[in-house]
């Protein structure tokens, strides 16, 4: 018997165990579907996994603690590798129809010197959807009838070939053939199962969407200062910007509109415009955490995906993309294997690939927010690299995996 325990809910777990309620749920289960799966979390990874498992023939119940499917953040880049996954899920064209295409990408310093690119991304199937749009498309595809909102899962227990779930308030939620843990970076269940709690990476920032379009159509850029950086993307007639700075979590939490305006002074006009046009009340502040890569993504019939499993620093724009790839792999395997044999194959397909992207994201974070001499040295190397090499490098971005 494998017990998966949410540390924050040990009290609930103990009470259930003492009274034997959790065991009786398994014993007294009502008539069950041949293959059923529970998904915890209605973010991009959880919604994608729900669709993938339905496609594989599972009956799916997705539990989301919020009262509605709410996106975290503003917009995000979805690269070609994840678009292939969205195509497999049947959502690719809906995303293309709503999102802005990413056609040109550049990395510069505050002096205006090119560090990387600009590179031409047209034809790379790279998009910048608003998070609300992406989640709405996924939810529609999954079917709202498969989602239970306002339910915070607190505990899971695998016994007798089933995984039983209880809410944080102790309510029993049912038992399933498979459990997918997709409840994000602060997942207690993933921490207790994988042993890789999130670690603060020494920087964080603020992001926002503005109605004005301070960036040319299809263009995205990042501009590096001394230990801080702004990013600005065309989001289809509006603008998506982010700011990242080295600092403590308290320092990041204290970043307000006035401070951002002050810090944007050494950056180009279009950045200052974007910050100035932002609604101070709508700024989203995010301290950057990552979960160390685990040795396996789960145990038995419990599989962790997305940020719950492998939250990475955002520097490759691949966190959600990898959640989508997780779902794709899961769907393929669930269509072929019994629930108790999915995990080893999932690990085989996913561990190495995700680890490489996770490591590349951390390396970029260490350059941008680590020691000044490292940043200056690497920036000088970046500047010396011919643009045609940059163009070649961008094509080495993760290609779509082959999960047929
Ligand atoms: C600044 C920044 C920029 C980024 N940019 C990009 C980008 O450009 N491209 C990209 O691919 N990725 C990007 N990412 C990463 C991306 O945001 C994440 O990887 C992705 O959103 C994680 O999705 P998820 O579904 O795993 O988790 P989440 O989005 O965190 O969803 C988890 C869900 O689980 C729910 N939940 C939590 N606990 C429970 C519970 N006990 N019971 C029930 N429900 C629960 C939550 O309410 C939430 O809805 C960026 C991240 C940051 C911080």
Walk me through this protein's architecture:
The protein is built from 15 helices and 19 strands. Helix 12 runs antiparallel to helix 13. The strands form 4 sheets. Strands 6-5-14-15-16-13-17 form a 7-stranded mixed β-sheet, sandwiched between helices. The two termini are 33 Å apart. It is globular and about 65 Å long. Strand 5 and strand 6 form a beta hairpin. Helix content is 39%, strand content 25%.
**How is the main sheet built?**
7 strands, mixed
Q: What would CATH call the class of the largest domain?
A: Alpha Beta
Estimated radius of gyration: 22 Å
> What CATH architecture of the largest domain would you give?
3-Layer(bba) Sandwich
Number of folding domains?
2
Give me the count of strands. Answer: 19
CATH topology of the largest domain: FAD/NAD(P)-binding domain
> Can you tell me the overall shape?
globular
Strand portion, in percent? Answer: 25-35%
Which ligands does the model contain, each kind named once? flavin-adenine dinucleotide
Structural category: alpha/beta
Overall pLDDT metric: 90
Identify the CATH homologous superfamily of the largest domain: FAD/NAD(P)-binding domain
Give the helix level as a range of percent. Answer: 25-40%
How far apart are the termini?
33 Å
